[in-house]
Write a structure and sequence with these properties.
Number of helices: 15
Low-confidence stretches: none
Structural class: alpha/beta
Number of domains: 3
CATH class of the largest domain: Alpha Beta
Mean pLDDT: 94
Largest sheet: 6 strands, parallel
Shape: globular
CATH topology of the largest domain: Rossmann fold
Order of helices and strands: EEHEHEHEHEHEHHEHEHEHEHEHHHEHE
CATH superfamily of the largest domain: NAD(P)-binding Rossmann-like Domain
Strand content: 15-25%
Radius of gyration: 22 Å
Helix content: 25-40%
Oligomer: single chain
Length: 379
């Protein structure tokens, strides 16, 4: 009889419990509590960003494959894993639409607060991969002027619409980061936004960071906010998370606990992908096409815009139904020391495609934009 696999998994990976049990002995642990002893006899490790997969954890273990239920892989020591012959994989684009939802909610919220029309703004996107390319489409849907910077792609000659990071800083009203965190190579992203970048800025700008905290120098950003150089800062990721400096938290416009990609849809996608990867690596036919199935929300919203006569106001009101970013901001500010608890206990958030909405007294552009943003608009 074939021996069951031994798999250690982060207990916070949703929809996972019960799926692999027919084929493996499962050990579920908090991501930051997975230890060398836990993995020494394991065949596979299923993680999120809170587990550092390096020599300290994996030296002399029997681990053959690692799957992270995330887009980013900076918590994986790739060089070590490759030397050890440990296969590793991520869940590319799993929560890209969730991050897009986060960005759009934050942009609309700040436009409403600042009485700005997004159609009059220039959007600068740094990093044009699975997420950045979707943000590009959002900018176009909203009628913004969009600039893109992806230095590795531009260097390879396969990205024709890119501009320099200096141009992004000089011309953008909104700068949003969607890069991995890298510290070496031709284009390291560690502290990509720093004092030098500020010297290029020619007008007050908004900064959004939902990539990795270390991509933005908090010291430089704090100075920019204090001097009015940066008039809006939306921060989902922090340099020393889960520890947050309260003096920095007080300065930013919207602060959230690294949950931009935490929609239920994104989590379902991530789990589906890593289960399929385990099934492929260990040849489990029954799970090679596994997918977590989510039902559309059973709520049907009826929204009358009789009292709202601006495009920004109408779009923002509908978008807030799918995700009110102010709730995440409020909870984190109230108890920043609960950063990890908020992530682990994050409420169910569905993406726009799960909602069916009937709108009344709307501007001609409203229905078209909402449909392009993913909502199902009924007559």
């Amino acid at each position: 009889m074939k021996q069951k696999l031994r798999i250690v998994a982060d207990e916070a990976i949703p929809f996972l419990k019960g799926v692999l049990e027919p084929f493996a002995e499962m050990l579920y642990l908090p991501g930051n509590a997975i230890s060398k002893k836990n993995v020494e006899n394991a065949d596979a490790l299923l993680v999120r960003t809170r587990t550092s997969c390096n020599a300290e954890l994996l030296e002399n273990s029997s681990v053959k494959m690692i799957a992270t239920a995330t887009i980013g892989m900076d918590h994986l020591d790739k060089s070590f894993l490759e030397r050890q012959g440990i296969f590793y994989t991520n869940a590319p684009a799993c929560n890209a639409d969730s991050v897009v939802q986060y960005f759009t909610a934050a942009l609309l919220e700040m436009c409403e607060r600042q009485k700005k029309d997004f159609r009059d703004m220039t959007l600068g996107i740094v990093g044009v991969g699975n997420i950045g390319s979707r943000i590009f489409q959002i900018g176009k849907i909203l009628g913004m002027r969009v600039l893109c910077c992806d230095l590795p792609k531009q260097e390879q000659g396969n990205f024709e619409i890119g501009v320099s990071f200096k141009t992004i800083c000089e011309e953008s009203d909104v700068i949003t980061f969607h890069t991995p965190l890298t510290r070496t190579g031709l284009f390291p992203t560690y502290h990509m936004f720093n004092e030098n970048a500020l010297s290029w800025v020619k007008k007050p700008f908004w900064l959004f960071n939902a990539s990795r905290g270390e991509v933005v120098s908090e010291k430089a950003l704090k100075w920019a906010i204090e001097t009015g150089t940066c008039s809006v800062a939306v921060i989902d990721v922090f340099e020393n998370e889960p520890t947050i400096h309260k003096s920095f938290l007080e300065k930013v416009s919207i602060a959230t606990p690294h949950i931009a990609g935490y929609s239920l849809d994104g989590k379902a996608n991530a789990t589906s992908q890593i289960v399929q990867q385990v099934a492929s690596f260990f040849d489990i036919p029954e799970l090679k096409t596994f997918n977590v199935e989510l039902q559309d929300t059973d709520k049907k919203w009826v929204i009358d815009f009789k009292e709202i006569n601006t495009l920004v106001g109408q779009i923002q009101k509908v978008y807030r139904l799918s995700y009110d970013i102010n709730q995440d901001d409020f909870l984190l500010r109230k108890n920043p020391e609960q950063f990890e608890w908020f992530r682990k206990n994050y409420p169910k958030r569905r993406e726009p495609k799960a909602y069916k909405i009937l709108i009344q007294n709307f501007l001609p552009e409203t229905k078209e934009i909402l449909e392009k943003l993913g909502f199902v608009i009924e007559n």
